[in-house]
Please model this.
Amino acid sequence: MDKESDRSQVPAEVEQSGRQEKVPLIELQVREYIGIFLWLGLLFALTASVKVPLDSSPKAEAVSISKAPWVFGAIQWLLQRWPAWLSGWVLPLLSMTVLLTLPWWGRKVGKTWAWIIFLILSLVWVGLTFVYMFMG
Model:
């Protein structure tokens, strides 16, 4: 038998039901953004509801500088030396912004320069972590 004659005998509903409807990329991105903001809102609400004392315990004899895990060593080192607004907010947000805009930089100035920017930022961060760990 001929394949075209077999295909013409299949009802249109059956042929359409086998295919999945394609969702536009922008709609998937919007769904993802909505999901992200809902989760962030939930996390912010949970953190706002937790009461954390900001002062030391009255039973403590002396308060020493607390050590952060090595992952946050660079931020801890900066917090010990610079103002909290700069080392706790501005510099981490600036480094995160640079990392998030690397694909844009790759198109704007070239992939080689984007890799150089990434490596410099990474080496600075790793260097601060090692300074914290060994000289802390």
Notes: The two ends are 82 Å apart (CA to CA). The mean pLDDT is 76. The chain has seven helices and no strands.
